[in-house]
Specification:
Elements: H1 2-27, H2 33-61
Helix pairs in contact: 1-2
């Protein structure tokens, strides 16, 4: 479960930093600001899709590794 949280945090930091760069460049009237905004919007869709795909790949590679998954209810 820790790797899922690490992937989510890394994706969040990357998306937020792209939006921050786009915002700063927009106020500085940089000619690159439109490109950075498009990169941020594109990354808003692509980064979560890649994170989800990575989770699916790990789930397919290790299908019997359910003891570390907190999504399932453990019976005591």
């Amino acid at each position: 479960m820790k790797w899922k949280r690490a992937l989510a945090i890394a994706g969040l930091v990357l998306i937020c930093s792209l939006y921050l760069i786009a915002l700063v460049l927009a106020f500085s009237h940089s000619p690159e600001s439109k490109k950075w905004l498009m990169a941020a919007i594109y990354s808003t869709v692509v980064i979560p899709v890649f994170i989800y795909a990575a989770q699916l790949v790990v789930r397919v590679i290790r299908p019997n590794d359910n003891h570390n998954d907190t999504d399932t209810i453990k019976k005591e």
